[in-house]
Amino acid sequence: MAKPNTPRIFATLASSTLAGLEAQAGKVDSPEVGLELRLDHLKEPHGLESALDQMLARLHSRPIIATCRRTEAGGLFGGTIEQQGNLLAAAVRAGCQWVDVEIESVDRAGARWLEQFKPAKVIVSYHNYRAAPPLPAIYRRLARLPVQSVKVACHARRLCDNLRILDLLKSHRNRGRKLVALGMGGTGIPSRVLALRYGSAFTYGSAVNHLGVAPGQLPSEVMRTVYRVEQLDRRTQLFGVVGSRASLSLSPAMQNAAFQGKHIDAVYLPCETDRLADFLAFARKLNFQGFSVTMPFKRGIIRSLDWLDPLAARIGACNTVAVQRGKWLGWNTDAAAVVEVLTKRLRLAGSRVLILGSGGAARAAAYALRAEGAVVLIAARREAAAQALARGISAQVIPWESTEIIDVDAVVNATPVGMTPQVDALPINLSRVRTRVVFDMVYHPLDTRFLMQARGRGLITISGLEMLVAQGARQFEIWTGGAAPRALMEQAARHVLSHAGA
Questions:
Q1: Domain boundary pick from 292, 307, 331
Q2: Is residue 328 classed as helix, strand or coil in its secondary structure?
Q3: Rounded distance, CA 329 to CA 493, Å?
Q4: In Å, what is the CA distance from 213 to each residue of 76, 99, 271?
Q5: Are 183 and 192 spatial neighbours (Cβ–Cβ below 8 Å)?
Q6: Cα 235 from Cα 434, distance rounded (Å)
Q7: Considering only CA atoms, which of 460, 409, 407 is closest in space to residue 434?
Q8: What local confidence, expressed as pLDDT, does residue 244 receive?
């Protein structure tokens, strides 16, 4: 198959020096990924043409977009329109095949200003970092210009803004001007992943983790390998995770690895929103086949379900939804995962288990363990919350200050204490606790101080990652009816955590 003239993905590079840009380019492993150079980040652009010519020669003629975005369009360039044009024209002479110019500059300089960039192809772009205004009118305004491509990038305040972006792409597929459209911010990630599926000429990623120049930008390799954006089509099934911090979830890495490992044509998206109704409309419109639910929606989602597993109903929280024959069915796989990982270490019936915390994770653990016949003790800094949870399952409440002199078979940390960045914090001190098993639901970092203290005392330890994989594997099995590739899922989660410094 012939190599396309235009890559499907461009990695955006930004640095104060050309050497920094070249170093970032070296981290874009795939030769099929083009590069966008943000020249507005350069502190000393003088002598650009000669230095850039040498740099591009070392990059072996990769497709390059030169961009010099002005401050009024969200960039860093504060010079005149003439100076901006001179920099971009120099980049073209050095070998850049594409130039991206924001509409604000064209409006001020006139369409003839674009002629200096020949023979490069010109992209005229519109950026709105605050909202997503009426998009068809913006497209028509840009498409009137003598350019090869039109780019529309808007801040996605709601998940349903992604639908407007995808509708724009769908309605202009194969129509004259090449169109690139995407949503910015964590809420806009679905539009970046699905853009090619809906007809975008290409999409954008970053060079490596933590180097995203635009809000919500994913590393280009993540887009290619985790989300397979170049292979998605209309037959690809959609799944996702909804929550107020879904863009930080490890579930996309795990579930997409599982789909690929089992050769299932599906993609799992992070769906970040603070309004559940926003997600419900989004998921129904895109015909989601299932989704995970994280905070703060595990209780609220129940009202939208057609059926709820009895244990999830008793817990009052649902973290897994499957769509079967048009019906939304709910489960709580956190509860099953708690039982699974503890059962490997001790017989639950009759065992005394201390749960630290009274939030959603603690509720799932408490109800699941009581259902297995364990004696549950609950301790929380908010004693009223602990009392409320204990009443529902006939558990015992332990005053927080008494937890460090207790005698139990297992201790479960269901609080966020010890999570990055507060890695030195301990939920309780284990030095005087008599127990056999310590289970910490925190998985970032992988090796918490709490677990290290437990191992130092010779206790059996269970990491939060083990539970994360267990609950995710059960979700996969509910959605697909097949066994989950747990080793692949754990490997994917560890890979993300290792790159995040866990």
A1: 331
A2: strand
A3: 26
A4: 12, 17, 20
A5: yes
A6: 55
A7: 407
A8: 92
Question: Buried b vs exposed e over 379-403: b needs ≥16 C-beta within 10 Å?
Answer: bbeebebbeebbeebebebbebeeb
Q: Are residues 271 and 339 in the same domain?
A: no
The pairing of strands 327-331 and 320-324 is antiparallel
pLDDT at 1: 32
Helix, strand or coil for residue 344?
Answer: coil
- Helix or strand run (H / E) with residue 53: helix 48-58
Beta bridge partners of 411: 354, 438
Which phi-psi region, left, alpha or beta, contains residue 141 (left: φ > 0; alpha: ψ -120 to 50)?
alpha
Contact (Cβ atoms closer than 8 angstroms) between residue 352 and residue 409: yes
- Residue with token string 């005698």: 407
- 281/418 same-domain check: no
> Which pTM does this prediction carry?
0.92
Is 133 found in the same domain as 80?
Answer: yes
Mark whether 84 and 225 lie in a shared domain.
yes
Question: Is 151 a catalytic site residue?
Answer: no
Beta strands in 306-440 (DSSP E): 307-308, 320-324, 327-331, 352-356, 375-379, 396-397, 410-413, 437-440
Domain shared by 77 and 63, yes or no: yes
pLDDT < 70: residue spans in the chain:
1-5, 174-177, 209-212, 501-502
In the block, tokens 């590739």 appear at 485
> What's residue 30's pLDDT?
84
Q: In this structure, are residues 39 and 46 in contact, taking their beta carbons and an 8 Å threshold?
A: no
Q: Can you give the residue range of the structural domain that contains 169?
A: 9-234
φ/ψ (deg, to 5) at 170: -65, -40
Instruction: Give the rounded percent of residues in the chain with a pLDDT score beyond 70.
Output: 97
Max Cα-Cα span within the chain: 82
Q: Which of 121, 151, 178, 298 is catalytic?
A: 298
What backbone phi and psi angles, to 5 degrees, belong to 293?
-125, 125
- Residue 36 and residue 63: Cα distance in Å, rounded? 9
Write the burial class of residue 130 (CB in 10 Å: 0-12 exposed, 13-18 middle, 19+ buried): exposed
Those residues whose C-beta lies under 8 Å from the C-beta of residue 152, and which sit 6 or more positions away, are 125, 126, 135, 138, 139, 142, 165, 168, 179, 180, 181, 182
Residue type, 178: K
The answer to whether residue 487 is domain-embedded is no
